[in-house]
Specification:
This protein is an all-alpha fold. It is 69% helix and 0% strand. It is built from 5 helices and no strands.
């Protein structure tokens, strides 16, 4: 299985979506954002949270591409913010190579 961060690097989304996500990730707080997005309870580990967020994002991206009426742009940006925020936290926690 690919490393989660490698999987994230292969993700290609519209520039405007990713710009919004990067800006929003500056204020990302794991304890406040993840429960709202993934459900309340114990917070999952970073890898588990990223995998679940990527599943949700893939569904939202498919809706965006197919131009479905159920597509929610704000939710998509929220999920992308959480993905960028979690990835930043994960990268910061890794020892320097």
């Amino acid at each position: 299985m690919q490393d989660v961060l490698t999987m994230l690097q292969s993700l290609h989304r519209p520039r405007l979506l990713m710009r919004a996500a990067r800006i929003g990730a500056e204020d990302y707080r794991r304890g406040a954002h993840l429960p709202r997005l993934l459900g309340y309870g114990n917070l999952p580990r970073h890898t588990q949270a990223l995998l679940r967020l990527m599943e949700i994002e893939a569904e939202l991206n498919a809706q965006r591409i197919e131009d479905e009426s159920a597509y929610n742009l704000l939710r998509h940006i929220d999920i992308l913010i959480a993905i960028v925020g979690e990835a930043r936290i994960m990268q910061a926690a890794q020892p320097a190579a």
